[in-house]
Amino acid sequence: xxxxxxxxxxxxxxxxxxxxxxxxxxxxxxxxxxxxxxxxxxxxxxxxxxxxxxxxxxxxxxxxxxxxxxxxxxxxxxxxxxxxxxxxxxxxxxxxxxxxxxxxxxxxxxxxxxxxxxxxxxxxxxxxxxxxxxxxxxxxxxxxxxxxxxxxxxxxxxxxxxxxxxxxxxxxxxxxxxxxxxxxxxxxxxxxxxxxxxxxxxxxxxxxxxxxxxxxxxxxxxxxxxxxxxxxxxxxxxxxxxxxxxxxxxxxxxxxxxxxxxxxxxxxxxxxxxxxxxxxxxxxxxxxxxxxxxxxxxxxxxxxxxx
Length: 307
Description:
The protein is of the alpha/beta class. The chain folds into three domains: 7-82, Winged helix-like DNA-binding domain superfamily/Winged helix DNA-binding domain (Arc Repressor Mutant, subunit A, Orthogonal Bundle), CATH 1.10.10.10; 95-167 and 268-306, Periplasmic binding protein-like II (D-Maltodextrin-Binding Protein, domain 2, 3-Layer(aba) Sandwich), CATH 3.40.190.10; 169-265, Periplasmic binding protein-like II (D-Maltodextrin-Binding Protein, domain 2, 3-Layer(aba) Sandwich). The chain is built from eleven helices and twelve strands. Helix 1 packs across helix 2 and helix 2 (21-27) crosses helix 3. It is rod-shaped, with a radius of gyration of 32 Å. The termini are far apart. 25% of the residues are buried.
């Protein structure tokens, strides 16, 4: 059985409201002949004349009277579905958003983000989950609403992205460490004992290539999976950590930070989401808040600038 042409619902709604082929044609910006053909199709589809001649005008049949209210509701509902979503009432919005981030993001941006959300939409709750890889499956399947991090080869090609901020690697040691005072040179830096941060267990970081170009090599004594672990070890020992500056601002509290004596590439931290959430007003609102918080929160000056 063939499916009926749903466009005829709009035509029927206007015909029943106007009670005139000519007026219905003007309202729908059709010619009278085109409207007459549409009425013929409606009669064939419904099996009822719908509008019949009475003097100089047309009157609805009992079937048309029965359909008039239902058709009007259907057309109104369809128009509501096809209209752009209205801006939600954020004061009454109740929703939980899941954000997948690497360690450091919540510690540095979480409080400002939570406070801003609570002020504008007290019924919204943020759920932060740990980012252990760059796979986009959690965005694709809807388990995660937003993600932050560096775009990688495993990031799905359909994923939407927007840059949040640029970051750079810096060196970090405990207060009182030998590297916390004096001139920092590549040789002096390389001579220390280092922590390597790699989720995949690799023993190389961006600064290793720069050091090798100068004929220098670091001694890596341990490899850890997270920046927070590296900083915890460096805080309690003579080990040296290299971490992103902005991403670890609060994690480096009461530690000595310094500019690396070699040039390393900057890293770009981006916001990622699935395209099906592009037009969702509440999701768009949250994306704007994340961007605002990251832009407004500037990195703290390194200890070197304070000496």
